[in-house]
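Teaching note: in complex prediction, the entire set of molecules is handled at once rather than each chain in isolation. The prompt given to students was simply: 'Predict the structure of this complex.' The entities are:
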Amino acid sequence: MSVFLKVIRHNRAALFGSVMLALFFLTAVFGPICAPLDLMPDFPHRFMPPGAQHLLGTDYAGRDVLVQLIHGSRDIMLIAFSTGLFGVLIALAVGLSAGLIGGWYDAWLTGLIDVFLTVPSFPVMAIFAVLFRIQNPVQFGLVLAIWQWPGLARAIRAQVLAYKHREFVEVCRIMAMSPLNVIVNELIPNMMPFVSINFIGIARNAITASVGIMLLGLVPLRVENWGMMLNMAAFQSGAIYVPHAWSYLLSPMFAIVLFQYSLVQFASGVDELFDPRLRSR
Amino acid sequence: MLLRKALTALATVLVAMSFTFVLLRSMPGDMLHMWAVQIQQQQGISYQEARQIARTMLNYDPTEPLGTQYLHYMANLLRGDLGYSLTYRIPVTTILLNALPWTVFVATTSVMLSFVVGCLLGVTVAWRRKSLLDPLITLYASVTQAVPDFLIALLLLLIFGLALHWLPMRGAYGPDVEPGWSLSFLLDALYHAVLPVMAFTLPGIGGWVLAMKASAMSALGEDYINVARAKGLREYRILTQYLGRNAMLPLVTGLASALGGTLGGSMLVESVFGYPGVGRFLAEAIALRDYTLMQGLFLLVTVGIVVGNLLGDVLVTRLDPRVRLQ
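The expected output is the structure of the full assembly:
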């Protein structure tokens, strides 16, 4: 932790990313409590530009955009986090077992990884999302994770093969440590750097994919979800033809980009944390 | 190596075909019966005959045993028979053939454009490291990396289509031109393709620049660059013929996957612009639960990516003598 603070002090990008992510997190946790969501239509006040009463204006039914964004941040966070978690778990299971067991099992899984990497991921995720009739963000994350693990699994497998005969693993074997012990205490800690970077990458993909799927109107989640807001603003409500509705249209876009950008910048800090060579600069 | 890749390609296509088989079988309700009844009423024939027609249109028969169904399905696919679209009631292949040229045109143009622009910028940045261009491009790359391509599409639509009225917002050609090989039609098609191509190209450039910069930086330390300098060759010549050409080689492998990404992402970008390509029809088919059309378009995209990958591998072996020797 203290090392990370040291990294942040030098790396402005990482500082920006960490602060922004912390803000997003606090907003997702406490924001909805402070700013209650009122979804009652108020048509006389629709498509309002930003003002004192509505900081980011109102939507097609006169509802506050900022409050919707705050409430929607929970869904985005949940989708990103759950996809990252499930994706990493699948990748660890596949990569570790393929690298450790080897033989035909390994060959079969490597082939499977190649196939998964070739088949276009967005269409598959969109089809899955429709077939599974998604009800909540965590379920959404699980469905997205089905196609988000192969890249990481391949990297983990390669890493296991590289570590398999290194001294620290050989020593464990001589000491007759159980395989599970070796995996949990020796192999996984050594892989934490790129696993955490990949976690962030998978989470980012999940945000892009989930917003894209909702933009196409394929998964109807709550109104205040950022993807749904964008779908309503861009395609359903005709807001793009209303000049003073620009805030309603741009706010969810800006929120998505800011969140993505924060993740990218944060990842650069994590990169530096695990790679001391980057730190000296 | 190439054999292994070909095997993977074959496996991918097989997996995709099996996936669409499962997809078709997960169609809710008895679609065959529904269609048969409809055809019976429309054409005034017996239910048995109507059911027979519906079966060929849907490309599946639930009364057969599962294994036979699967084999029949695969055989039909290999013959190019994808059944009829549930919503449009025309053969899926007709829709495919109409949509494919648009997507191929936009995808290849934007991938090539972002590759060329990215390589040129990357080699320039590597050559003149102290210039102002370097930090600008790094910023550009990190910002565009964070913006999903469909958001760029939406922004382009808002700026150039809606606010400035410079470029058309929807479609592949205007309502007043007749599709054909006439000059006015081609120009109009180009005019309509500008925004979709930009939506794919703008976010693509950043990655190529960074990759090309890294590749050119490592090539700068090579002896042949020093030799070229010592020979007193002009800077432009060293930049293009020596540095650029060699630094570009490792990037060519990325072209195929970039094309794949563009095809996969075409669902969103084409939907934003109402561009009648494969992606927009796929998005529509998924939204309308048009299982047969979904199946056909998904297979088309997958096969397209597989073929693109194989072509990329062959291209690399052609371009790089070191790979050819292995």
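Point out the following to students. The first helix of chain B runs from residue 2 to 25. Chain B is about 80% helix and 0% strand.
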